[in-house]
Amino acid sequence: MANSILHSAVLFTIFSIFISQFLIASTIAGEQHGFGRSLSRSKLGLKKEKLTHFRLYWQDVLGGPKPTSVMIVKPPKSTSNGGFGQVAMIDDALTMGPELNSKLVGRAQGLYALASQSEIGLLMVMNFAFMEGKYNGSTISIMGRNTVFSQVREMPIIGGSGLFRFARGYVQARTHMFDIKTGDATVEYNVYVLHY
């Protein structure tokens, strides 16, 4: 009987030590990693990073029966700063060529706002949502400053989805056509995007 009590006490002690060590290790590991942890790129299926270039035409249509840009916030009446404060929502066609009826490859969806009091400077916040080829369903997110009367405007790519996860890079915009009467514009976008 003494042997069985001793045997039970030894087993209980070993079990207690094991549980204590497990709890201590779990606590230490939790403190080291908190709510985040490092991951290997390969575990996410990320291979070698590559650079892709696109040339697209952004078709901004303000008038007619099917505008793709609509004002959602008017500028304050008290301002005489060329529309400062105005905000437009867009769902602009992205085409392969400069003609409005050129092949549609995606949509530029987002908004732009007149963000400068001294010049026509826009804050652009938009996604290029691709609808063609291997990039169908993928997006590139762009946010930046667009001084529309500059010959070339550069804006950063801040992310993406689908084949453009972890995207970074920049776009260069050049006005191809601007209709002073309607406000419609065609802008050539050269997109330089690093992605996996």
TrEMBL record:
<dbReference type="InterPro" id="IPR004265">
    <property type="entry name" value="Dirigent"/>
</dbReference>
<keyword id="KW-0964">Secreted</keyword>
<feature type="transmembrane region" description="Helical">
    <location>
        <begin position="6"/>
        <end position="29"/>
    </location>
</feature>
<keyword id="KW-0472">Membrane</keyword>
<comment type="subunit">
    <text>Homodimer.</text>
</comment>
<dbReference type="GO" id="GO:0048046">
    <property type="term" value="C:apoplast"/>
</dbReference>
<keyword id="KW-0812">Transmembrane</keyword>
<dbReference type="GO" id="GO:0009699">
    <property type="term" value="P:phenylpropanoid biosynthetic process"/>
</dbReference>
<keyword id="KW-0052">Apoplast</keyword>
<comment type="function">
    <text>Dirigent proteins impart stereoselectivity on the phenoxy radical-coupling reaction, yielding optically active lignans from two molecules of coniferyl alcohol in the biosynthesis of lignans, flavonolignans, and alkaloids and thus plays a central role in plant secondary metabolism.</text>
</comment>
<dbReference type="Pfam" id="PF03018">
    <property type="entry name" value="Dirigent"/>
</dbReference>
<dbReference type="InterPro" id="IPR044859">
    <property type="entry name" value="Allene_oxi_cyc_Dirigent"/>
</dbReference>
<keyword id="KW-1133">Transmembrane helix</keyword>
<protein>
    <recommendedName>
        <fullName>Dirigent protein</fullName>
    </recommendedName>
</protein>
<comment type="similarity">
    <text>Belongs to the plant dirigent protein family.</text>
</comment>
